[in-house]
Amino acid sequence: MNPAFVPGPAGGEPWYPAAPPRPAGPDRPAPLTARDLDRAWYLDFHYPRGVVPLGTALVDDLVDGAQRAAAGLPLTSGRGLSVRYVGPHVYIGAVPGDEPDPAERARALAEVRRYPAVFRRRWREAAAGLEAELAALRRTDLSGLGRDGIGAHLDRARRAHARAWRLHFSVMYRLLACHELIRSELAEAGVDPHVLTALLQAADNRVRAADRALRGLAERARQAGLAPAFSAGPGPILPRLAGDPAAASWLAAFTAFVEAHGDRSDSVGDLTAPSWQEDPEQVLALLRPLVLGGAPAPAMPDAAPPPGLGAPAERLIEDALRANIVWWNEEHNLVIDLRAHLPVRRAALALAAATRAPAPDAVLFLFPAEVDRLISGTSDWGELAEPAAARRAYHRAWQARRSELPPSVGASAAPGTDPVVTQILCAGLAGGRGSGPSAVLRGLGVSRGTARGPVRVIRSPEQLSTVRPGDVLVCEATSPSWTPVFGLLAACVCDVGGMLTHAAAVSREHGIPCVCDVGTATRVLRDGDEIEVDGAAGTVTVLSRRGDPACTPG
User: Fold this and answer.
1) Residue 427: its pLDDT value, please?
2) What element of type H or E holds 510?
């Protein structure tokens, strides 16, 4: 922790230029101040570029969804999540509260015990309804709508986004509680928790299906002799392929893939990031290392429970498989995290075009109340262009400052903190900070095994095309769009994350060691450093530094 770090008004770090006041309240998202440092706040890896002004409405939806879900399932003193901003960057923390009334806790516990029996049906129905709404929003032609029509569409998109995050946390809190309950009861029965993890890992999901299709495209590109188009240096790949008659059949398959799988972005809730359908070059950039490196398919773990567990343990495992948090934590991403914000982006771009904005994405740099005034006609770009331009410059400058930000600020997390914080975002940020050639960084081992390799520090999806076979991926955290390159990796190291975070699940799927919650890996390690990752011990050992001839791998 770094309680001396006080950004925000108390430390002289301003919020967005000419920003309207944020709603008051200790549990509402707001810029970080000294008053907040009695609580623990963790730099959230979901928003590596920071949040644009219009995107603050989407963060509000996330926080509201978490707090509603926690209030509806009072198992601990936690009351959901809240957010503090440092510049445009998001720090997330648990909302403290009193211990639940014993009767309320008993009711919530009984609901959790019943949840495996109803989870699949409830999720299917709710996800299908949400997807239908998102698909309808996508099909709507916005080009002929005026301000009022676009405003109505934007309002509908905002409501769909809020609905998505209420669903997200309603399911997540229940699944996390169910998982922890079953794990503890299995431990009491003498069952190794890694047995349960392996069984949950075996379930297929939509992210894997998309990755299989992507690997199939890569293999077809190699067989068609198209690798030179992917290895010809920087610049767009699509024009090279379009100019090659031999690529015609492959491009038809690529177009079909983008249509089927492209209603997603590379980042959670990032309104600046286009979808794959909007910018197919993103998919080609992901394909580049697969075409050139030939990433193998992951070996799926054995889905059968080991013999001799006994009837009580087998029933617990059956419940865990029915309420499979590892499966859902991947499956829901293509319904909510990487998709639900895209209708808001489309509407914002359409509004910019309809109002002759000074830039195609200028509406993204307006706060929600300003967007509403632009729609109603009570404000125009004569008034809004200057603050929007200043905020764009502010957002760009703060992206470069992300590496300055500490992984956490404020007090230590209290016992009984929010399960999303402990299981998904981080486990305590107890990582080591060594800097010498024999430095050992410590974190949480989330995927067993030991491997060595050169460091490849990745800070955004745009850099994934630089990954080479045998690299050790070092990053803040990963997202589903990063999954295709895991077949190339020797190991993975993350600044943050718990046992159920994305990097942990995908590393186990690919059988590579992974250490999360290191805290300082992206700051201490550099491209080309040689390291050893021990996914059982949770250690990352620096064997040699790039360019240091005195240090060689042991």
Assistant:
1) 54
2) helix 502-510
Chain center to CA of 182: 26
Give 12-74 as a DSSP string: T---STTPPPPPPSTTS-EE--GGGGGSEEEE-TT-TT---GGGHHHHHHHHHHHHHHHHHS-
Look up residue 530 and give its amino acid. E
Q: Give CA 412 to chain center in angstroms.
A: 24
CA 142 to chain CA centroid, Å, is: 29
DSSP string, 286-307: HHHHHHHH-PPPPPPPP-SPPT
Measured CA to CA in angstroms, residue 28 lies from 20, 32, 413, 420, 431 at distances of 15, 11, 19, 18, 29
How far is it, in rounded angstroms, from Cα 200 to Cα 202?
Answer: 5
Length of the chain: 554
Hey, what amino acid is at 304? A
Instruction: Indicate if the pLDDT at residue 423 is higher than 90.
Output: no
CB atoms within 10 A of CB 547: 9
Mean pLDDT of 347-361: 97
What strands lie across the sheet with 408-410, from one edge to the other? 30-31, 81-86, 89-94, 40-43, 408-410
What's the pTM value of the predicted model, to 2 decimals?
A: 0.91
Q: Rounded distance, CA 45 to CA 479, Å?
A: 9
Which phi and psi angles does 481 have, rounded to 5°? -70, -15
Residues 6+ apart with CB under 8 A from 323: 115, 116, 119, 174, 175, 178, 179
Beta bridge partners of 86: 89
Give first-to-last CA distance, the chain, whole Å.
Answer: 33
Residue found by looking up tokens 């806790």 in the block = 105
CA distance linking residue 201 with residue 211, whole number of Å: 16
Tally Cβ neighbours within 10 Å of residue 491: 27
The Cα 28–Cα 526 span in angstroms is 37
Confidence of residue 390 (pLDDT cuts 50, 70, 90): very high
Residues with Cβ within 8 Å of residue 46, at least 6 apart in sequence: 90, 267, 268, 269, 337, 477, 479
H-helix or E-strand spanning residue 534: strand 530-534
Q: Who contacts 543 (Cβ-Cβ below 8 Å, separation ≥6)?
A: 437, 452, 530, 531, 532, 551, 552, 553, 554
Q: Locate 324 and state its tokens.
A: 């499979």
Furthest-apart CA atoms within the chain: distance in Å:
74
Is pLDDT above 60 for 416?
Answer: no
The kind and range of the H/E element at 440 are strand 440-442
Integer-rounded Cα radius of gyration of the chain: 24
Residue 516, phi then psi, degrees to nearest 5: -110, 175
The encoded tokens of residue 163 equal 């609905």
